[in-house]
Amino acid sequence: xxxxxxxxxxxxxxxxxxxxxxxxxxxxxxxxxxxxxxxxxxxxxxxxxxxxxxxxxxxxxxxxxxxxxxxxxxxxxxxxxxxxxxxxxxxxxxxxxxxxxxxxxxxxxxxxxxxxxxxxxxxxxxxxxxxxxxxxxxxxxxxxxxxxxxxxxxxxxxxxxxxxxxxxxxxxxxxxxxxxxxxxxxxxxxxxxxxxxxxxxxxxxxxxxxxxxxxxxxxxxxxxxxxxxxxxxxxxxxxxxxxxxxxxxxxxxxxxxxxxxxxxxxxxxxxxxxxxxxxxxxxxxxxxxxx
Length: 291
Hints:
Radius of gyration: 21 Å
Number of strands: 23
Largest sheet: 12 strands, mixed
Strand order of the largest sheet: 1-4-7-3-9-11-13-15-17-23-19-20
Number of domains: 2
Strand content: over 45%
Distance between the termini: 38 Å
């Protein structure tokens, strides 16, 4: 979120695991929010709905801390925002009072529509969550950041997506996509632009049967990588699996399934870059088998 208290930043290189974890620890205490999950005996919840005219807006940005984010593109002229707000804890009256203090902020800053919780709620033994479901014109770019929750993006013109504890799914993306998490997997289906994905504990899957990404940069530490595309790309292909196997199918004169730690080849003109890297896991690269 725009306040330094809530800012999420997990863009450090994955191979520097210590720096990533240190960065998270440095940010968490400054959030000024009690994340004690509480007993959950009592629950208070509320919903939020708002339609915003999309004129002059090129990008929608959604940020939360505890909660999932779903963004779907559609053929419309409004940004449709729905949020589910929850508070859990021991006493119902306290949950109800804390719930009243959680608001949803929707602000237009330049050509970006910013959506986030406005938090004025803190009590030990009680926790809160705000999950967003947003519909936006599919020509827009999107940005989504959370700490504890999954991110799902469908039919949007690319964007940046981050979480720490949760997976990321990107489907039918009409532009460049960057996805980062620490504890969770990443799924890409039909990405027409550049595809960048990184995680520490999770597998990464990319499958394109309609389009071929121009560049791919995929890395994980503990997980498998699977890339299935319909056509041979014009790219420099570099694969690394430090403690795992490499499997390649569908490339002319190259069929490989072994415990080799690395593989490189120039495909077509070699204009783009396909980089696939894992430390503890296998890598599969298949052409012509996207289903």
